[in-house]
Amino acid sequence: MGELALSLVLLVGAGLLVQTLWRLQHVNTGLAAEHVLTTEIPFSGHQYPEQVQRTVLQNLLERVSTLPGVLSAALADALPPQSYALSMTLRVEGEPKGPRNDPSLDVAVRAVTPTYFAVLGIPLKSGRWFDNHDTSKNPDVALVNEALVRRFFGSRNPVGQRISGVVNDEWRTIIGVVADVKNQGLVEPVQPEMYLPADQATNTVASTLVVRGVGDPLALVAEVRDQIRTVDKNIPLTFTTMTHEIAGLVSSQRFNSILLSSFAGLALLLAAIGIYGVMSYLVTQRTQEIGIRMALGARRGHVLSLIVGHACRLTLAGVAIGAGLSLWLTRYLATLLYGVHTRDAWTFCSVAFLLIAVALLASYIPARRATRVDPISTLRTE
After folding, report:
1. pLDDT of 29 over the 70 cut
2. Would you give the DSSP letter of residue 184?
3. Dihedral angle computed from the Cα positions of residues 248, 249, 252 and 256, in that order, rounded to the nearest 10 degrees
4. DSSP 331
5. For tag attachment on the chain, is the N or C end more exposed, with fewer CB atoms within 10 Å?
6. Do residues 19 and 359 lie in contact, with contact meaning Cβ atoms separated by under 8 Å?
7. Is 37 within the bounds of a domain?
């Protein structure tokens, strides 16, 4: 029973973690990550003042966009799926100014070039995109995500409304609404976000390059690197793909699932071997009794049910003990789970049925052997 109880505890834990991994892998990030290459271009602020960086990066972006195999390219100051953006306390024109330390008024701010949304496949819900006219020489504009609209505008149409930060009171006109994107990881809920044209962002420089290619994005690394090195051959570069970045967010969950599943599988195997050994020993000890029963007219099915029934009682006792332990221990997994409860009924029932099936299979072989006992030979030895 001990092996069965331990197996159930480990299998339940593994089942919960596997469900968490599956749900995280199927989280809608809000972007099309396939065929996207990214790299940060860490220009030195001493060698390249801010305005020089903007000019160099814009020229670089134009050259990369024309490379063979490149569908589109863009620049941003931070990229999903797990990035830290600047934040500000938002104020809507015509509404009272809120306190600066109110977290419910905070929004993330990202500086991007107009092609950013096309590269990452972020759809426009209403209004218009940024274009080449949205520069520092023209009125300040912004795109906002749906989460910001829900929090600050409710059912009102935000397009055409003006917003600003409490700190600087620089008003920007909302020109469009884009779909929500998981910019703070897969588990965290989508936060209100505001996108600014890179040329109008004064506190940050969009220096992260994101490129959408036709096929394998890593095939573009050499040509993109050559273009960047024409600006400064000493810039340290690290290339990665967007799919790799997203996969990295579930690496710890994947490791936990594999580790616990391995232990659970080993425990299940030991439980099956233990049940088989116990039933084999039981059959050996009761060989004479079985022979006498069969000599007196007991059928093979009766003998089979006798042995398997004993195994079922042991199994059910082990499952009951294991279920109780699991209900108590799985609460410590709560911080590791996503989208599944620590007392998920489907997981508990599936594991219980699996253990019962394995136990019945392990006990069936010695039980089948017991039905082949020759009652005449048994009586003679008696």
Report:
1. yes
2. B
3. -110
4. G
5. C
6. no
7. no
Cβ atoms 141, 200 nearer than 8 A: yes
Say yes or no: 211 and 256 in one domain: no
Region class of 122: left (phi > 0), else alpha (psi between -120 and 50), else beta: beta
Same domain, 86 and 172: yes
pLDDT range class, residue 315, cuts 50, 70, 90: confident
Which residue bears the tokens 């396939």?
34
Residues 206 and 340 in one domain: no
The residue type of 11 is L
Assigned token pair, 267: 């425990």
* Token representation of residue 92: 């809507």
For residue range 104-155, list pLDDT tens digits in order: 788 989 999 999 999 999 999 999 999 988 988 899 999 999 999 999 999 8
Q: Cβ–Cβ contacts within 10 Å for residue 271, how many?
A: 26
Residues 108 and 232 reside in one and the same domain: yes
With b for 16 or more beta-carbon neighbours within 10 A and e for fewer, the 59-81 pattern comes to: ebbebbeeeeebebbbbbbbbbb
Number of domains in the chain: 2
Is 243 a member of any domain? no
- Over residues 273-280, the mean pLDDT reads 73
Same domain, yes or no, for 104 and 149? yes
pLDDT at 374 over 70: no
* Domain extent at residue 195: 42-236
The whole-angstrom separation of Cα 337 and Cα 84 is: 23
The residue type of 343 is R
